[in-house]
Amino acid sequence: MTDAARIPTSIPAGKAPVIAGAAWRSLLDEVTTWPKPGLVSHVDTGSHTDMNAETFRKSADAIAPFFADLYRCGFHGGTLAALRAIGQAAEQAMLAATGGVNTHRGAIWGLGLLSAARGRRDASGDTASCCDIVRQVWGPNIHATPPDPSSHGGDTQRRYGAGGARTEAAWGFPTIRSVGLPALNRGRQLRPDDPQAARVQCCMALIAVLEDTNLLHRGGREGLAFARDQARTFLDGGGVGHPAWSARAATIHRRFVARGLSPGGAADGLAICLFLDRTDS
Question: Which processes are annotated in GO (biological process) (predicted)?
Fold first, then answer.
């Protein structure tokens, strides 16, 4: 039986809004996590001068309905081109809500693909993870599509050969699965009564390994190496299990701000981890 023949026409009532709500909640949890090195939070604006936590909240509100659309598109067997069209509409809504500030382009990409994958899985009865569905169904076309040269990701791929979020998605989010989600769970074990600590643990673990195109754009190879080293030092010192973990993370945050570094890829990765934790079961 073909995939098309297995896909039903009727989406389970209320399922698309549930997926959109999970994406929205994950985006808000990301921005209200502190201390995240160099990143915007409810405490301060990190290394940014053109956005704050309220900008991110407006953005999350504006783009949330599109994750429901992406779920529906995936449910009905949508192509990568169809998903991209919805994602581009989400970007326009984001820019309209933020006055032209790019708050969530990377998150729209990652969470959008995974929302669509969840729709496809619900339609087909597939038992694969949403990450594997992205890799199997849309991965080849992602690999075959050249990056946008006007984006930070496209520019850093040209200059440094970094694959960034495109490559991570095309291969089924391997860093999210092997590093991010285990770190989130490790943080919960270390601080079972502090959800924010688990999110910091996850973010630091991603900074330590990701070839973050946002860091490359702002700081080049030197900035990326500095960021990774700082995160590894935090983790090697016990991470959020250290009695003074918050103060240690805040010190690293200030060092990132002093250098103008912002690991946006890790922030998107944190939101993706939270989304998968909520939905991929």
Answer: prosthetic group biosynthetic process
